[in-house]
């Protein structure tokens, strides 16, 4: 029984388990002392906590699903639905992070395409949604965990941050639209009626009013988090206010928080801190990384995913802009390059268990295609600059 539980826990929290083992092994090389207290980036941890609480609050109100339904009622064709869903993932991920976007919209997408009897198209759209969430999230400092961390630890200004990511986000948006517009367009006819909840008008109006009232505390907390991002407000103030407000408004959100993500960051902080105190290891990694931040960010992400790659590599370089670009582009490629992609895979595999291999094939084809184009763009942009 215990063995099965441990096996299941490893499958569910693989990255945390690896980070914990690395941190534990590093204790053998560097005995615990007061220097360990300087390892974590407390601002990053506090900001992650605050943003995850805000997003959990938004989710608890069902805001994003209702927004999707309202928009989809405007879509009159299969192409229109596809474009709306993918663009929702692209732009929503900039605020609510890539993983939360996929948790919200992938199940909704599977339901919508079943309603309109176009399940033959759902695989491609889920894959494009995944790409959209991973690439759209790179455009803001709060779009994904690696951005939150690198923006915090590097101290880079917004201009430098945007120069490192916006060109690629723009190219990604164009690529997504091209991929969607080459799709054959067909009217939905009566099948789209399933998108309407019965009775829709009055019930949606009441639900919307309730949401607008309930969302106010979370919007204020989001504003506090953004003030921390822009270094206007100390992170300690936002942390305390967020913890208290959530406890008063909806304390159940504490149970839904991804605590293992925070613990994963903490374990990597310990591991990297210890590696930096071993001169031979630190010198070697700094030498290897020098001038190769973008390409190693992409490469390492394919193996351990882009969030751990960002934390690991950031400890041995001062060139954060190319590393930021690298780990964001590195979310493309393999299924584990971005852990958010696993969310899409799990939802799709649960709905279509006999199509896991097909999903991996289509996913890899589209991801590698996008990655190669964006890597070529990185070379061209590097030459121009």
Would you write up a description of this structure?
With 385 residues, this protein is mainly α. 76% of the residues lie in helices and 0% in strands. The chain is globular and about 65 Å long.
Largest sheet: none
Give me the strand/helix succession.
Answer: HHHHHHHHHHHHHHHHHHH
Percent range for helical residues? over 70%
Mean pLDDT across residues:
87
How many whole angstroms does the radius of gyration measure?
21 Å
Instruction: Specify the number of helices.
Output: 19
The percent range for strand residues is: under 5%
Morphology call: globular
| Oligomeric state of the chains in view | single chain
Low-confidence stretches: none
* Distance N to C terminus: 58 Å
Strand segment tally? 0
Based on secondary structure, the structural category is mainly alpha
Chain-wise SSE layout:
Blueprint: H1 2-12, H2 14-29, H3 42-60, H4 63-72, H5 78-96, H6 98-115, H7 122-136, H8 145-154, H9 158-181, H10 201-229, H11 235-250, H12 253-256, H13 259-276, H14 279-289, H15 293-304, H16 306-314, H17 320-329, H18 339-351, H19 356-384
Helix pairs in contact: 1-2, 2-13, 3-8, 3-10, 3-11, 5-6, 5-7, 5-9, 6-7, 6-18, 7-9, 7-18, 7-19, 8-16, 8-17, 9-17, 9-19, 10-11, 15-16, 15-17, 16-17
């Amino acid at each position: 029984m215990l063995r099965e539980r441990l096996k299941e826990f490893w499958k569910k929290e693989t990255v945390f388990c690896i980070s914990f083992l690395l941190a534990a092994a590093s204790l053998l090389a560097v005995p615990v002392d007061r220097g360990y207290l300087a390892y974590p980036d407390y601002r990053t941890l506090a900001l992650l906590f605050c943003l995850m609480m805000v997003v959990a609050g938004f989710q608890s109100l069902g805001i994003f699903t209702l927004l999707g339904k309202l928009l989809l009622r405007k879509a009159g064709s299969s192409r229109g639905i596809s474009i709306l869903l993918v663009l929702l993932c692209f732009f929503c991920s900039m605020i609510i992070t890539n993983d939360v976007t996929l948790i919200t919209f992938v199940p909704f997408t599977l339901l919508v395409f079943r309603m309109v009897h176009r399940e033959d198209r759902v695989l491609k759209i889920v894959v494009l949604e995944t790409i959209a969430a991973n690439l759209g999230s790179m455009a803001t400092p709060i779009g994904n965990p690696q951005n939150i961390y690198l923006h915090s630890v590097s101290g880079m200004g917004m201009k430098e941050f945007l120069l490192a990511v916006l060109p690629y986000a723009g190219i990604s948006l164009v690529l997504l639209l091209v991929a969607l517009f080459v799709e054959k367009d067909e009217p939905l006819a009566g099948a789209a009626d399933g998108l309407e909840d019965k009775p829709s008008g009055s019930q949606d109006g009441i639900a919307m009013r309730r949401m607008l009232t309930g969302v106010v505390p979370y919007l204020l907390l989001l504003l506090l988090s953004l003030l921390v991002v822009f270094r206007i407000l100390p992170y300690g103030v936002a942390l305390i206010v967020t913890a208290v407000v959530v406890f008063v408004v909806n304390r159940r959100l504490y149970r839904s928080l991804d605590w293992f993500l925070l613990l994963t960051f903490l374990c990597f902080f310990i591991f990297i801190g210890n590696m930096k105190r071993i001169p031979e290891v630190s010198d070697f990694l700094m030498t290897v990384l020098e001038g190769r931040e973008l390409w190693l960010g992409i490469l390492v992400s394919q193996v351990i995913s882009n969030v751990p790659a960002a934390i690991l590599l950031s400890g041995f370089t001062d060139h954060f802009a190319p590393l930021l670009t690298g780990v964001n582009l590195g979310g493309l490629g393999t299924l584990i390059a971005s852990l958010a992609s696993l969310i899409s895979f799990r939802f799709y595999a649960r709905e279509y268990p006999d199509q896991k291999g097909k999903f991996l094939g289509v996913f890899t084809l589209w991801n590698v295609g996008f990655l190669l184009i964006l890597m070529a763009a990185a070379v061209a942009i590097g030459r121009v600059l």
